[in-house]
Amino acid sequence: MFSSSGGGKKAAPQQQQEMVQVDRSDAPSPFWRGASRDPTPAKKTRDSGLVVGAAYSHADMLKFDSLNISGSGSRPRTPPSTTPGHERNSSLNSTSGKSGSKSSAPPLKTYMNFLSNTNDDWTVDDTDDMYDYESDDGDDFGLPSLSNMKRRTQRKAEQSKARRDGSLGAGDDDPERQSRRRNSDSADIGFERPASIYPMPKKSEGKILRPQYKEILRDPANALHLINYPTIPPNATQKEIDAINSRITRINKFKRLLQASTIPLADLRQLAWSGVPEEVRAMTWQLLLSYLPTSSERRVATLERKRKEYLDGVRQAFDKGGGIGGGGGPGGGPNSNTSSSSRGGRGLDEAIWHQISIDVPRTNPHIELYGYEATQRSLERILYVWAVRHPASGYVQGINDLVTPFWQVFLGTYITDPDIESGMDPGQLPRAVLDAVEADSFWCLTKLLDGIQDHYIVAQPGIQRQVSALRDLTARIDAGLARHLESENVDFIQFSFRWMNCLLMREISVKNTIRMWDTYMAEEQGFSEFHLYVCAAFLVKWSDKLVKMDFQEIMMFLQSLPTRDWTEKDIELLLSEAYIWQSLFKGSSAHLRGSENRVQNTNFQL
Q1: Torsion angle of alpha carbons 80, 318, 448, 407, nearest 10°?
Q2: What pLDDT digit, counting tens, does each position of 17-70 carry?
Q3: CA distances from 453 to 172, 391, 463 (A)
Q4: How far apart are CA 254 and CA 237, in angstroms?
Q5: d(CA 3, CA 8)
Q6: Residue of 125, 145, 120, 121 whose CA lies nearest to 134
Q7: Which end of the chain, N or C, is less surrounded by CB atoms within 10 Å?
Q8: pTM
Q9: How confident is the model at residue 589 (pLDDT cuts 50, 70, 90)?
Q10: Cα end-to-end span (Å), the chain
Q11: Under DSSP, is residue 415 helix (H, G, I), strand (E, B) or coil?
C-alpha cells in the first residue's frame, strides 16, 4: 500500500492494520490542507497549460493550495459512470485544519514514521455515492472526471446527430442505439467505460507498416536485414560526417552480435551500456531481460510459446466465467477465492480494474500515441493480467508508466518511421502485430518488476531501503546539500519516493527514459541498484540551486525539474556520473556512517 508522499493507490486486497491518526490541523507543510471554512467553496479550475500524468498526492501539481491529502475515506475519487446526483457528504468539509497556517517547515520525522503514519491514507471505502460529481469539472489533480467526460461526449454526440438529422435529440429514445454508443463490440470488460474522444491522425501523418512484418513477427532477427542506415547529406560538415559514420559502425557491431547463432550476453551488455541504436533496440532489450534465449535455434519456438501463453492468460482473465487461476486452477490466482459479487459477475477483480481504468487514460497524456483507444486497451490488458498474476502486490499506481517504454520500443519494430509518438494509430495495424507487441511488453515488464517487486508490496520495503540509502549516499557525495535539506526539514521520502516508484519517468521524457533503460539493462542490477546512484547524481546536479532555497521552494522545484529540453547527451552525462558514484561506493559501508543519532540501514548493499 502506498504512502501519501507521492506513490500510487494500491488496488489489491487491503491489509488490516491499526490506523495511526495524524494531527494535520497545525501542520505547516503544504502537503496537508485543511478543509475550507467557507461553506460555498469556489469552483476548481484547471490550468490549461499544465500537463499532468497519473494522480499522485503531491507529485504532479505545483500549486500546493490545490492539494488535498486526508485520512481514510476522504481520498478524492474519480467517479464511476453510474448516474451521479447524490449530495456530497458533509464530512468532506469537516476535517480539521487552519487555512492560514504558518509557512515554516514541518517538524523533522524519519521516513519510517512518515510511512507508518500514512499507510492508510490511500484506503478508500466504496463511497462513490457521497460525491456530487454532476457539478465537478475535474478532480483535485486537475484531471477531468469520468462522468464529466461522458457528459461532454454525449452532448457532442447528440449535437452531431442533430445536425445530421435536422432535429435535436432525434433517435435518442432508441435504447439499442444508446447501448451501441456506450459499449464497443471489442469484448472488453470496461462495460461502464464512458464514450471517449480519441485523436485522429491525418492521412499524411500515417506511419507505414513494414511489408515484411510477418517475418519479423516470426523472428525479430529478421528485422536486422531491414535496417535503414543513415545517409550523409550533401552539405554535411566533417563533424556531422564523423557522427553518421560512427553511428553506422555502432549499428554494425550490434548486428554482428545479434546475428550470431549463440549471442554472447556479456559482450552485448558491454556494448549496450553506452546506448543501443533504435534499429536494434527491441531485440537487444528482449535478450538482456532474458525474454529471448541466446540460442537462435530456440528463439522462434520460445517466442511463439510465450506469446500464446499471454494471449491465453488474457482470455482467462477477461472470461465472464472466471479470472486467472479461478476455480482452483494451477497457480490459484487472486480471484480463486473471490465471491462473484465482488467481481461483478464479469470475471474480473473490480478493485484492480477500477484503478487501472482510471490510470491508463492519464498515462503520458501529452503524447498522441497514448491517446488512441487501441493503445489504452492494450495497456489495460497488460496491467490487469500482471496484477492478477501477482497478488502479493496487485496493481499499484506507477506501474502503468513502466510498461510504456516497452510498448513504444516494440511497436516501433514494425513501423518504417522510428518516430511513432505522433501520427501513428495502432488500431490501424494488423491484429497479429498488436498481439505480439502486447505480449512482448507484458513479459518484459514482468522481468523488470521481478527484480523490484518489493517496491510494490505492503509497506514497500524496497523503496524504503532505497530512500534511506539515497539520503546517506547524498551526505557522502554532497555534505553541504544534505545539511541544508536537513536544516529545512526536507525528508527524502517527500520527493524521492516518486523517483524510486516510477524510476524517474515523471522527471524525464519517454525517449530519454528509453535511453536510460539501455544502460539499466546492461547493468546486472540496473533497476534495483544502479538506479540509486542515478538518483543521487540527479539530486546533486541541482545542488547549487537547492542550497539557496527554503522548504517550499525546494519541494516545488523538485516536483517540476527543468528537464523538458534534455537530450540523450544530458542522460549520458547523468549515467556517467552515476557510474562514478557506484564505482566509489558500491560494496563499501563506510559512506553509511552518518551522524551518531541516525539509525544505519544495513539491509541495502551499495
Answers
A1: -80
A2: 444 444 444 444 443 344 444 444 444 444 544 444 433 333 343 343 443 434
A3: 49, 11, 10
A4: 26
A5: 8
A6: 145
A7: C
A8: 0.66
A9: low
A10: 26
A11: strand
